[in-house]
Specification:
By secondary structure, this protein is of the alpha+beta class. The chain contains 14 helices and 28 strands. The strands form 8 sheets. Strands 12, 13, 14, 15, 16, 18, 20, 21 and 24 form a 9-stranded mixed sheet that branches. This is Kumamolisin.
């Protein structure tokens, strides 16, 4: 291809430095870094995937992973242009993956900066130093429309884990709160999960993000096998097959990060619900390319073929955030749906604010739960004296956390929510309402897990994503036996009018965590932006999806 010197800004690639960030200096020009270049698809697929989701699973024609690669993968001619670009700019092509439309390039900070017309700086933010850029990525004019994302030049963290530890309480309050926690198995029974299946023959993918050092190497987040062994032994549940998978240099690194609680919670909850399933934990750095590449690695894993993915990480939607990151991750979740893979995502633990100390005073939906192709999982407070269920929206205030939920400012309202009475978004548009479903998430009524050698209680919508993933694995075992297909993208079906009795409606409470948003959002009859459609009755959901 003839080399043109005309450069254009890559659409949606603009970034800003976060408020409170301090410039330390230029990034080390000799440092070797790896980035992911995302290429265009052969055709737009949103409408086909939405139409697929409206069909009963029995009637669906999913693409196999091989068929997806052929129909929707990157064009080799486009890849050849990236090869030329890399050659001209002293970059190396590390890998090409046609199905996920991803080319990974390596090179020095100096070469990357020149190739993409960016200035990379060391920036101190929230106690850590990251490599950041501002403004847009520049690409040669002949690559416009071919390259749709360049991820990883900037390695600031993009997501938080959505788990909450139970708060220590003193005196009478502590005595009143005792016995408030549940074993995973007790929750499965209270929610009437189908009893005959264990998820046999299914693979559950769990996405986990590592803390990284200044060189981009993982420093923490992981699980100790000894904790898992003890948990399953105590629970009297056979331990499922569990394997860690490394993406973009990610690794199982327990003992150095608070996020160990996330990793262990996810595995223990999913594994207790579906001990017959294989669990693969995809570790990647907590960066834009790490998060996207981890989900893509699971979606396109031709060896293990996950049929359900659990994601308990996310962050508030931000109109000034990275649109190409949102596009890239949403595209990965949509591609999962096309192949019959369900993606369960935690909706957040900071209520409708979805932010902590640095809150801007506005409501926010959490992404990637706000992807219209994700099953967004919200939170409740569950009490069940003598098996009598009393369940309300989780809202323990700023200290105790609250279930995430709201209306997207990024994604328009999907057709399946047309009759759900979703309120207008904070920008006064028709947006995607979050969550879709809910389950026990209040740490005060949380899950009994085993972490760092001790039994402990953890909550958060983080627990609800693997809980639902385990349920979907059980249902997939049943539907695969019955008609040879997984249930995949279920949102259009669960919002349809014939789902009475599939969900227990949560009608009490709100997720206004600080009390400053006039009770936004309140629970009520039908769908709401704090508990979604409600808590699934597992057996009834299985009947709906296997009809």
């Amino acid at each position: 291809m003839a080399s043109s010197t005309t450069r254009v800004a890559l659409a949606n690639s603009a970034r800003k430095l976060p408020k409170g960030a301090k410039l330390v200096g230029a990034a080390d020009p000799k440092q070797e870094i790896e980035i992911s270049v995302r290429l265009r698809a052969k055709r737009a697929d949103d409408e086909q995937v939405m139409a697929l989701g409206a069909q009963p699973p029995r009637e669906r024609q999913y693409l196999s992973r091989a068929e997806f690669g052929a129909a929707m993968g990157a064009d080799p001619a486009d890849v050849a242009k990236i090869d030329d670009f890399a050659h001209r700019h002293d970059l190396n092509v590390k890998s090409v993956h046609l199905a996920s439309r991803t080319v990974k390039l390596t090179g020095t900070v100096k070469a990357m900066s020149a190739a993409f017309g960016v200035k990379l700086n060391k920036v101190r933010y929230e106690g850590a130093t990251h490599r950041m850029r501002k403004g847009s990525v520049q690409i040669p004019a002949e690559l416009a429309g071919i390259v749709v994302g360049v991820h990883g030049l900037d390695n600031r963290p993009v997501a938080q884990p959505h788990f909450r530890r139970k708060l220590p309480q003193k005196g009478a309050a502590a005595r009143a709160a005792q016995g408030g926690s549940f074993s995973v198995d007790q929750i499965a029974q209270l929610y009437n999960f189908p009893g005959g299946e264990t998820g046999a023959g299914q693979c559950i993918a769990i996405i986990e993000l590592n803390d990284i050092d200044q060189k981009g190497h993982p420093t923490g987040a992981g699980y100790k096998t000894s904790d898992l062994r003890t948990f399953f032994k105590r629970a009297g549940i056979p331990m499922p097959k569990i394997a860690p998978a490394s993406v973009d240099g990610g690794a199982n690194k327990p003992g150095h990060s608070e996020a160990d609680g996330e990793v262990v919670l996810d595995i223990e909850v999913a594994g207790a619900i579906a001990p017959g399933a294989r669990i693969v934990v995809y570790f990647a750095p907590n960066t834009t390319n790490g998060f996207i590449d981890a989900v893509k690695a699971a979606v396109h894993d031709t060896a293990r073929k996950p049929s359900v993915i659990s994601i308990s990480w996310g962050g508030p939607e931000d109109q000034e955030g990275s649109q190409q990151f949102v596009d890239g991750l949403n595209e990965a979740i949509r591609d999962a749906a096309a192949m019959g893979v369900t993606v369960c995502v935690a909706s957040g633990d900071n209520g409708s604010a979805d932010m902590g100390a640095d809150w801007d005073g506005k409501p926010h939906a959490d992404f990637p739960a706000s992807s219209p192709f994700a099953l967004a999982c919200g939170g409740t407070n569950l009490k069940a004296p003598n098996g009598h269920i009393n369940e309300v929206v989780w809202n323990g205030g700023p200290q105790g956390g609250a279930g995430g939920g709201g209306v997207s400012v990024v994604f328009p309202r999907p057709q399946y929510q047309a009759q759900a009475h979703v309120p207008k978004s904070p920008t006064h548009h028709n947006g995607r309402g979050v969550p879709d479903v809910a389950g026990d998430a209040d740490p005060a009524t949380g899950y009994e897990i085993f972490l760092n050698g001790v039994g402990t209680t953890i909550g958060g919508t983080s627990a609800v994503a693997p809980l639902m993933a385990g349920l979907i694995a059980r249902i997939n075992e049943a539907t695969t036996k019955k008609f040879g297909k997984t249930v995949g993208f279920i949102n259009p079906l669960i919002y349809a009018a014939n789902t009475q009795g599939v969900f227990r409606d949560i009608t009490v409470g709100n997720n206004d965590i600080t009390g400053d948003l006039h009770g936004m959002y309140k629970a009520g009859p039908g769908w709401d932006a704090c508990s979604g459609l409600g808590v699934p009755n597992g057996e009834a959901l299985q009947n709906l999806l296997s009809a």
